[in-house]
Amino acid sequence: MRLKSRHLLGLEGVSRQDIELIFNTGVTFKEILSRDIPKVPTLRGLTIANLFYEPSTRTRFSFELAEKRLSADTVSFSTNTSSVQKGETLKDTVQNIEAMKVDMVVIRHQAAGAPHFLARCCDTKVINAGDGAHEHPTQALLDLFTVREKYKKIDGLRVVIVGDIKYSRVARSDIWGFKTMGAEVAICGPTTLLPYEVEKMGVKVYNRLEAALEGRDIVIVLRIQTERQEMGLLPTIREYVNRFCLTPPHLAGLRENFTIMHPGPINRGVEISPEVADGPYSVILSQVTNGVAIRMAVLYLLSGGRLPNSRRKARAS
Amino acid sequence: MESDKLIQIMDEVAVARTITRIAHEIIERNGGVGDMVIIGIRTRGAILADRLASEIERIEKVTLPIGVMDITLYRDDVQNKLEQPLVQKTEILFQVADKIVILVDDVLFTGRTARAALDAIIDFGRPRSIQFAVLIDRGHRELPIRADYIGKSLSTTLEEKVVVKIKEEDGIDGVLLGGR
User: Fold this and answer.
1) Domain of A141: which CATH number?
2) Are residue A160 and residue A270 in the same domain, yes or no?
3) For A204-240, what is each residue's pLDDT tens digit?
4) ipTM, 2 decimals?
């Protein structure tokens, strides 16, 4: 079985079939993570470079763990300790890394489209670990996987994403992913933090939290980046808290057996109250566990078709 | 290979008798079935493991734990294939540490699948011993691996095909040999 694309750049345009394949593979990897020795030798000899041009703990750890659990060799880099400081361009960095025979690149970059650029100019396979405000496909895949694990299906679920949609790559990937899998998606936030013409993505838009939550199964709460206030998009954080912070009284409007999700890191008391974040309906920590399994699945599925080494000839006999 | 004539080597009755014989051999060799578990390699090995376990149960009145193993992730040629094989679930819901593990597969050929399965089992714990049971041993090993219990040894050429059919998967039981 094979994914349609040799890269994972975003969830826009990824078929339902491919997402299902990633899920089914993810189930196997989740079982492996629960073993005494949670490691398989599948990607032995494969080298993966993790290029993180932006700070990240969760995603980076999750990818590195996934790679190590599959026995791949990894090199990681973060901008403040690399030649990027000396002004090297993205293309040069990657061509150098490619010259060292790296098979796959996992990239997080502040510019939307950076992974797509790499996929065009290099031979390596590319996985997008977040590009600007564009997409963060593995986060959305693990969100979907976590939901599917709980409800056994995604079709027909009613999802609402609350917070800073405009600058959120998680929101975009989640919207594509949940819509492809047949869920109904709405977004909610202050107008200054909603993208222009977002309705064209086929989502309902709300400015009032109470209205947005009515009859929903799943609430995905996004982090409010405090920098936004300095940009003048939020009058004050306190005003945001008053209107959009998810607190226990809000939960009354939700459907039975509802779920609260958050991609992390959480600003407790800003977009979500601690009582809600730690409540029994919150799956925030299983999202993190599932992240490793889903990333293993993606790495495994993209790793096929490795070009020739002496081994290839040797096997033909 | 358009005109593959398949010759029947074993029929349903022969397969059943062979499984019964292997069951007796396992019990004899180990002096009973204490601390024993059975693990089948997907897909046909897993079904054979089930049958072997019910034979042993019939003879010894003991139900052995049965596990299923998918060895895809342990293969040595995963990255060379253009399409990744679909990984199925491995279900070993018991401890293998200090147990006698009976590993079951349908055909023993190059030995690479068995090698992968051995690695996989050891990742679950350290068994007291692993014994390997196969329905057909067709030779041409590429690794120093042998089976402890063999249904039938066939001398084959590399061009020949050995096809094992199992009711649950293929509708009938039997072993066929084809090719030149």
Assistant:
1) 3.40.50.1370
2) yes
3) 999 999 999 999 999 999 998 877 777 888 888 899 9
4) 0.72
